[in-house]
């Protein structure tokens, strides 16, 4: 068992942020789909769209609440486990973290209460306006967080003080960081894809069980159309822009993502292979010639640097995880596009609701985007290593020197236990909502009106 405190600090943060992100990755995309449902309800006067929106607002509320609870430990870890990082980078990244809490989170939480409990006391237009505000708050929150993360990958708008502490000198450059814009577009497309797969999966499950058929068809229709569009957007243009930015600014990370040790033009993209770091080669590779050069530089003749072109102390410190994380993300992304493409074709041909095999595929595919998003974040964050702030602060220099490995391991075990209990409660709440189905909670006036 590792005794290095830094290992446990990193593992603890990786666990807490991975578990936490399972919830906002759904709510961000779901906020957009709820707006679409409410807009369709307003336009068509179709009460089934209202029922669908009402159900997904409740699912949003459960995910939002659990996301808040699981996000609290991350805030504390900046001070407990990463004190040197907080002291050095806090004057910069603290700005966007504070803005997220004061503006975006407060807006999101306030209008969510109106959406959940205020429908019978508001006009349809006012309730739709609340959905728009929820969407705005959710995506604004995402931008502030991603702006913080983008600074760690591509620091701009700062100066280094005489004591080594970073100072914000250009707020505009910091808030309009081009890395943040690319990251935001890619992340939000992935969140919409996640929500679309979940919405389609629930609708498909209801159809397979023969319940809530009219609302289920609307969920599947919206999920398939939005899911195909979002899955395509994850790959192109947002994923393509991210790949080119990594190639330009972090070439060692790109080399790790492809398990590439040798430099040269006509670089192929690897479909299958196993990185052999000890012998600096990729075992059993199956590649598409020239595609990596094209993806990175827009030309098949582009010269792609391998890991051998960089000192080993600048390599990502877990090349295998970076490589496999990237390929899991890319592989699942391809499957997601293919599945939603087939489903969309069947929908256009009016065969989707009668094709049980395709409905089963949609119902069982909802974990795909969760796994892909987790693998993508793992690729990005492990690819940034060995830096906490790229080119400025190394990870080894950012942890809390007075928190030893035993303390970090103890709190990690505690977080795992707490999150296990939270996870069980979350699953129970979701199962209860799925069993109840769309429409208003039992016994309310809205439900009686639709009966």
Automatic annotation (TrEMBL):
Transmembrane segment boundaries: 12-35, 55-72, 92-117, 129-152, 189-208, 220-239, 321-345, 357-378, 408-431
Identification of the protein by name: Cytochrome ubiquinol oxidase subunit I
Family: Belongs to the cytochrome ubiquinol oxidase subunit 1 family.
Main location per the UniProt record: membrane
Pfam families, A to Z: Cyt_bd_oxida_I
Keyword set includes Cell inner membrane: yes
InterPro entries attached to this UniProt entry: Cyt-d_ubiquinol_oxidase_su_1 (IPR002585)
Lipid bilayer topology: Multi-pass membrane protein
A cellular-component GO term for this protein: plasma membrane
Single GO BP term: aerobic electron transport chain
GO MF annotation list: electron transfer activity; heme binding; metal ion binding; oxidoreductase activity, acting on diphenols and related substances as donors, oxygen as acceptor
Subcellular location: Cell inner membrane
Keywords: Cell inner membrane, Cell membrane, Electron transport, Heme, Iron, Membrane, Metal-binding, Transmembrane, Transmembrane helix, Transport
Organism: Eiseniibacteriota bacterium
């Amino acid at each position: 068992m590792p005794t290095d405190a830094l290992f446990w600090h990193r593992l603890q943060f990786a666990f807490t942020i991975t578990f936490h992100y399972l919830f906002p990755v759904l709510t961000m995309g779901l906020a957009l789909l709820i707006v679409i449902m409410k807009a369709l309800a307003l336009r068509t006067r179709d009460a089934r769209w209202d029922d669908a929106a009402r159900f997904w607002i409740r699912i949003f509320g459960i995910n939002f609440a659990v996301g808040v609870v699981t996000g609290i430990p991350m805030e504390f870890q900046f001070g407990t486990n990463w004190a040197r990082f907080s002291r050095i980078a806090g004057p910069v990244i603290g700005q966007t973290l504070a803005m997220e809490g004061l503006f975006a989170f407060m807006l999101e939480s306030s209008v969510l209460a109106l959406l959940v409990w205020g429908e019978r006391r508001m006009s349809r237009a006012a309730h739709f306006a609340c959905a728009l505000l929820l969407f705005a708050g959710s995506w604004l929150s995402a931008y502030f967080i991603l702006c913080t993360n983008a600074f760690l990958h591509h620091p701009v708008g700062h100066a280094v003080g005489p004591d080594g502490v970073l100072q914000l000198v250009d707020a505009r450059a910091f808030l309009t960081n081009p890395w943040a814009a690319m990251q935001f577009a890619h992340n939000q497309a992935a969140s919409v894809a996640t929500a679309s797969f979940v919405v389609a999966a629930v609708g498909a499950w209801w159809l397979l069980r023969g319940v809530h058929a009219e609302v289920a068809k609307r969920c599947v229709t919206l999920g398939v159309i939005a899911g195909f569009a979002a899955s395509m957007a994850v790959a192109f243009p947002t994923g393509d822009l991210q790949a080119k930015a990594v190639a330009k600014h972090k070439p060692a990370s790109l080399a790790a993502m492809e398990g590439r040790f040798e430099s040269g033009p006509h670089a192929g993209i690897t479909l299958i292979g196993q990185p052999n770091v000890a012998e600096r080669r990729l075992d059993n590779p199956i590649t598409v010639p020239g595609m990596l050069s094209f993806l990175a530089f827009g030309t098949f003749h582009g010269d792609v640097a391998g890991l051998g072109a960089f000192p080993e102390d600048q390599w990502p410190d877990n090349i295998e995880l970076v490589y496999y994380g990237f390929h899991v993300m890319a592989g699942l992304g391809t499957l997601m596009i293919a599945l939603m493409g087939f489903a969309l074709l069947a929908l256009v041909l009016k065969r989707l609701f009668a094709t049980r095999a395709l409905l089963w595929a949609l119902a069982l595919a909802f974990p795909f985007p969760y796994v892909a998003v987790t693998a993508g974040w793992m690729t990005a964050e492990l690819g940034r290593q060995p830096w906490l702030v790229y080119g400025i602060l190394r990870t080894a220099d950012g942890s809390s020197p007075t928190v030893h490995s035993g303390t970090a391991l103890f709190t990690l075990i505690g977080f795992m236990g707490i999150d296990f209990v939270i996870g069980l409660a979350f699953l129970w709440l979701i199962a209860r909502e799925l069993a109840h189905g769309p429409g208003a909670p039992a016994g309310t006036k809205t439900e009686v009106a639709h009966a």
